[in-house]
Amino acid sequence: MKSYALLGDEAVALGALHAGVSASYGYPGTPSTEILEYLLAEYEKGGPVARWCANEKTAVEAALGVSFAGKRALVTMKHVGLNVAADPFINGSLLGIAGGLVIAVADDPGMHSSQNEQDSRFYAAFSLIPCLEPRHQQEAYAMTREAFELSERFQTPVLLRLTTRLSHARAAVTASETRPQNPVSRAKDKTHWMLLPGYARKNYAALIEKQQDILSWSGSHPANRLELDGRDVSFAVLTAGLGGNYYEENLADLVKARGGSVPARLHIGAYPLPADLIQKLSEKAQTLLVIEEGQPFIEEKLRGILPQGVAIAGKRGDGTGGSGPVPRTGELDPDNVRKALGLPPRPNARSSLPASYSSLSLPGRPPQLCQGCPHGDSYEAIKRAVKEIDPAENHPSVAVTSDIGCYSLGAAPPYEVPESIVCMGASVGMAKGASDAGIPYAVAVIGDSTFLHSGVPGLIDAAATDTPMTVIILDNAIVAMTGCQETMLPSSKLRGLILGAGVKPEHLLELEAKRQLLEENTARLKAEIEHPGLSVVVFKRECLEAARKHRKK
Ligand code: SF4
After folding, report:
1. Alpha-carbon radius of gyration of the chain
2. pLDDT digit string (tens) for 521-535?
3. How many folded domains does the chain comprise?
4. The model scores a pTM over 0.90
């Protein structure tokens, strides 16, 4: 047995390799990117297929094809990517999965690099499929292996839920034997792969029938650990994911503060929720504190199934909303869990400083574009063009929408150009809506990779009606924000794609994003924004980070 020092993400990748995965797909997104990067490096050395995809939906669809051929497939994405992949993901639960299909989703509580804190456990519950939530790197490795077995056993996809601190922290992992890949196999009856209403009804009934078996599995899973014997049941604790680690960090002090009594506890790492274990824990409990990373997923379910006499405390306060002792937003950590347990703060480096020092605070370091980033030159031209078109304060006749990528930072000083940033690809649709609503100058700003991910359908909508708006594509020839992955199509193919969507060649403009060309770029961009129909302007220049990496290679 070999040991490795792995990030949580890498432990998932190694677990998949050792489970006999045949193909892995994904779209880069923090904090999940390192899973597929590890597998891509293995692929380059002759390992199983690993590919970035245009978006998370196409990634899940490719994985379904692998599974139908009898082989094992892994899909990786960040939490908001699961919204993009929701269609094949949710429908996937109605299919008779053949080769194991595991969807590894990394949630980002605290929004370190995301637009929301959504909790992927809701998706697993909604789709009626098993979900595993590791609490350390060794479990990430073992649960990934197990997820493939489960997927083949229950013939459903299995969701593996990670969170930022686990994904990005490194720890020792002991690996076990590598399982060979499944051979290609073809099913005789393929009706369970077709969601025509007649077949889908049967498949849905089959999924419902599996639920009792899935519940029995989670009820006896070793990651769902009930600690009841010799424990104080008047105050019980239910932990999940990393919340369990933070609880344990504070346990010695908690026991001391309670005069030696150890609270009863249930830790949950496998879903659906083990109802029997929860019932046992709550039979005598007067108060139950729920410590879970993410949204109050467990807490909300408990409020419906526990006896009235048990007071539930967690993120939702009195159960009607608001906040309880565990913070409702942001990440958990040992300190806020300690506070929720009613313990005094631990002494830290700051508290041991003299009073005159302890009040000092470090200056904030908001994220910024790299010095010399091509997006800076593009935004400078956009800002000037907008100001020339509408010099009034806040430019009421202009709407500039933007998207997800390094260029989102154009919303911050000194540019402050976009008025809206929502989700991947949304800039194009929002600009169309602004134009349809009567705003004379609607402008969408989108990166090349985001455009390929989900901006193209919006452009087709705009081209179909020749909507008076301008789509500005910031083409830096790379997926910069997540660590410079290659885009799905090189810059040279963008022109053909845009013209193929129906944009008129005379209103497709390609500009070099350079400071020396600022005057000229501003004038040409302004003319396209003022054109009473659809236009596309592509600002081109390679990302500095990508150029540095390419030179190094
Ligand atoms: S990584 Fe590239 S695209 Fe991102 S800010 Fe830096 S230079 Fe610009």
Report:
1. 26
2. 999 999 999 999 999
3. 3
4. yes
